[in-house]
Structures are given as structure tokens and as C-alpha cells.
Amino acid sequence: MSLNTKLAIALPTYNRAITIDFFLKTYIPVVKDHNIGIYISNNASTDNTLEVIEKWKSVYPYIFCSGFDETVHVDINVENALKLSPAEYTWLIGDGYEIPQQSLEYLLNVLPDGSDKYDFVIANLVGRIKDIDEKIYRDQNQVLEDLAWMITCLGCTVYHKSVIPLGDYSRYRATEFGHVGFVFDILSKLDFKLLWSPNITIVTLKTPERKPGWGQYFLSNIFEKWPSFISLLPDSYGASSKAIAMRAFLQKSKLLGWRNMLTIRSQGFLNKEIYRRYEGIVSEVAPGFLKSYMLFLTYMPEGLCAFVLKRVEWIRRKNFQIRKAFNPDLRI
């Protein structure tokens, strides 16, 4: 069977050789029955990422890799990954996420044939949205209010090939949310048809290493860059819809969860000075206990936070392994 022309997977990466190795080991058994291409944009990695990719290309012929001679901003690498795919639909996904077999099969079954098409398909993240049934959106402000926070996840959006050349990529570069800006820029220009499907869900990839995340940029990204990004959206989006989207990302994404805050403190990126800088916006968008918890963490030694975090991670992974042994189809 030849290369699948209906659907492809696009993957941007940088210096994540161990993760890419695990990613391809996980994905190849899922996609090989449909000969789905995996298009990797390598952001001039300095580790052995290319060697890992070459190893898996000898196992699965539909892995393609392109990239840059020098490292570029992540938004440019994401854009390049998306443009590598020639398929009718492209699922853009980060290397920290997994597409379960049932989600892939469901998507392939709902993608229309012939002249009918979806401009975008939005997938769920670990089933977090439970109160919106599968539906077709045609109103840009409604998409912004309901789904913008979900679209921030680099793995929840499937693009039709016709929209990929249309986005104003440069407008949202270096915002850290370029892939989100591209979607909403397109929606403001088209009489679009977007499918939201809670039945298509991605899950976290249980990699050998914990994903490092935004590190020192974590708090500035969510408290400064996200509001700034929202302000860049076209004027066709209503002020009230922008405000709803701005708050929903902080409230629903679970980025302000206790483990993330513990991680940030353990890395030295949360202290009394930083806490005071963001205290006002935390009070606006988060429950009172989170504000108290963040303040409490500023008094905890970083080493103690790191120790607690490692123990929590060990317990979580062991718990997952035990549950997985009894239920091989478990996905979380």
C-alpha cells in the first residue's frame, strides 16, 4: 500500500533524541496499518536526533525529515513542520503527546470525501472538555470562547491543506502561541467549517524523561505573553470573546495546577519577587488557595521541592504501570 494521501502527522522537534526515539517507537505500530506519513521538522538539534530518525526510517519508510542549519524560534519550526506535509489533512502534534489507535481510527472515519471538507478538526486533550458535544462551528467568536484554550495544546488541531498557505504566520511569531494565532487568523478570513470532536482525544506520552516545559518562561508566557497574544487577534473578534478566551486558558488548561507550580519552584523560577509581580493577575483568574499555595512555595527550599516532585513523579509512573498491566488499553 502506498503513502496515505488523506492524513499525515507533522512533528516539530529540537534536541529531544530520547523522546523522539520513544515517540516513533510508540507511533509506528499505530500508523503503519494506514501508511500515514510522519513529517519531522528538526530545529538544528545538536544531539543525536538525526541518528534516531534515521534508525526508525529503516523500520518505517514513511518518515520524512527536514529542518534548519541554525536554530530558529519554535514558532517558525512549527510552521515549517506544518508546511512539510502534502496530505489532504495534517495533524500537527508535539512530541510529548500520543494519538491513541481509537482516536486515529475515529478521525479517519469522520473525514469527508469528495468536495466536502473541514477546514480544521479540533481534538480533545485527555478528555478535558466534557460539556461540549461533537459539533460543527461556523462562528469565529464561539470557537475563540469555547476552544482557544484547547487549541493552545500542540496536538489538538488537524489542518486541511487548503488553509495552510493562508495564515499570517509572521504576525504571531515569537508569541509562543504562533500555532494558535494561525488558526484564528484563518477563521477571521474564511467562511469556515470547523469540527470539534471530543471523541478524538490525545493523551500524554509516557516518555522516559519528564518534558521540561517552559522553564523560566512559564509564568511570563501565561501571565504576559498569552494576554499580549490575545490582543493581537484581528478586530473581528469581540472584546468579550477575547476576555473569555484569555481567562479560560488560565482556568481550564490546568497550567496553574499544584504540580506545575511545584516544578517551577523546584527549578528556581518562582520566588517572592516573581510572586509579587504576578500576584494581581493570580488573584483575578485563580482560586484563593492557589495564591496561598504559590506564596507558601516561595518559602520552601528549591531542593525540597525537587525531592517532593521526584517522589510524586515516581509514584504516578508506578501507579500508571500497575494500572496498565491490568488494563493494556489504558490512556491518561
TrEMBL record:
Positions of the Glycosyltransferase 2-like domain: 9-140
Pfam families, alphabetized: Glycos_transf_2 (PF00535)
Superkingdom, natural source: Bacteria
SUPFAM superfamilies: Nucleotide-diphospho-sugar transferases
Name the record gives this protein: Glycosyltransferase 2-like domain-containing protein
